[in-house]
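User: Modeling request: complex.
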Amino acid sequence: MNAKRIRFLALLAISLVFLFAWAFPVFWSVLNSLKTDRDALAYPPKLFFSPTLEAYRDVLFGSGSILPNLISSMIISVGTTIVTMLMAVPAAYALARLRFRAKKFAGFYVLATQMLPPVGIIIPYFLVLRNIGWIDTYQGIILIYLSFSLPFAIWLLVSYFEDIPFEMEEAAYLDGASRMRTLWRIIIPQVRGGIAVTVVFVFLNAWNEFLFAVVLSGNTVRPVTVAMFNFVSVEQTLWAKLAAVSVLAMLPVVVLGVVAQKHIVKGLTVGAVKGGGRR
Amino acid sequence: MSGRGQVEFKDIVKLHGEFAALKGVNFEIKPGEFFALLGPSGSGKSTTLRILAGLDAPTGGRVYIDGKDVTSVDARDRDIAMVFQSYALYPHMTVAENIAFPLEMSDLPKSEIEPAVKEAARKVKIDHLLDRKPGQLSGGQQQRCALARAIVRKARLFLLDEPLSNLDAKLRLETRAELKKLQRSLGVTAVYVTHDQEEAMTLADRMAVFMAGEIQQVGTPAEVFAKPNSIDIAGFIGNPPMNLVPARYANGSVVIAGHALTTTVQFAGERDVIAGIRPGALRFAIDGLKAKVDLIEDLGDTAVLDVDCAGTPMRVRVNHDDLPREGDTITLTARPQDIHLFDPETRKRL
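Assistant: Request completed. Predicted assembly structure:
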């Protein structure tokens, strides 16, 4: 009994350490976003201060409003997610089900794209986009994001499709369903969890992306991750505003996480335990 | 419904690379018949069913349904319903939605679907479970749901792939009887795959016995039981299986373990044979084969004796009343018509 208790306390302590490490930056951002610039710079840091929404008002409605950037980010992320899913779902289904010659290689190359260091291809991407005049355009950034999100999404979804017994599809054919109808009515509803997980990951990756965005965007299309740096200059860093932007940038992610939480937890376990799905 | 669901397999061959899963299969199923495909695992019975369903294409040969060549017709255009071993219920749909699915796919109006679903569910006694999801059903209920989904469409052929194998023993017996009644009341042609000879014997009007990719015998269960036409079938049908012992034939009698028994089989000359005698056909006698009782398996009303007949092991089924004791020596005989003879070379019936 005692050993159990010690074990529990040890686990609790470790969890708290991790929780603190994860939560501290969030906590710091929220705290600073409610300070005035002067309070934010105070040393030692002030834990007690009169909170104000001034920073939020400034970054949302002030002269350097980041509202357009949030909208930019949203268009890029939603666009990337939609296009990715439209292509990844049929591709993953095909990889999971069909028998074709190059299947093994196709599977490998899908994964291989994930192994390239992004820095290595950023210049070629830039040159390609410049040549077709797509620098600083939504279609340009979405296209580049697709080159990463699509293989990732396919790779993630394949295992969900593979978990569905083939007999299920055969039953649907015998029941008179076409291949498309089988996919739509029988298969997709069963990989809902996997699709939810993939949507969240693809969206988050697009939303958080910085490296490509900073090179390939411009004045027209500038996602919030890039725009945030408006508050960092050589002379000074506007900590309160920077923190406020960070919090605003986090919001959609948190909302998405909460909404999709049920699916994610279920989806992750189904995907993790191979063949452990419902038979 | 009579007259629908006639099936003919003509020289069906199925190769998986070098391996021949089916080596030229021929049989015919009459409309309204309950036809079993029986055989050990890997004998080709499931492959045969899948070819009939259109889920697999044969490498050679033709499949006819109701006189029409359907060899290259798509599975969904064959008007065939099937119950899978795993049931293959759609887990995200309710029982009612599962049963309704084939009707929806044939674009039947909603007003006709609902009564048909209820009717099918009532026939298999799950009409109180229509709002449940398959995950909330017991194994037996899932099986019924799969049955209902198959019968709702009134297809011309009803295929069952080991539908009872996932049920426990008691439920299996109950469902077996109900399945037979259901098939009779619907008057539909049913093709039933099983490796369980007892299931095939009790359910089927006729059956085809598969061995290593070939049909070795087609007939009623009684015919196959009474006259198995090869050593393999003799050893496969019946529980416990037939005793198959090396013997010497001469002039209407066989010598087994030094003792001659008369048989009805007549041919000229003298030769080595395999003699087959069912455990239930052996009886106590004053004069006959001497055998030592090694082990008694008491089944309550009957018992199975493992005996040693001068070095040849045999099994005997006896009434519970006249049980010898282990270690006793008993004397056994069999009626002439109960002795089957097989060729040791070709393994065929003589």
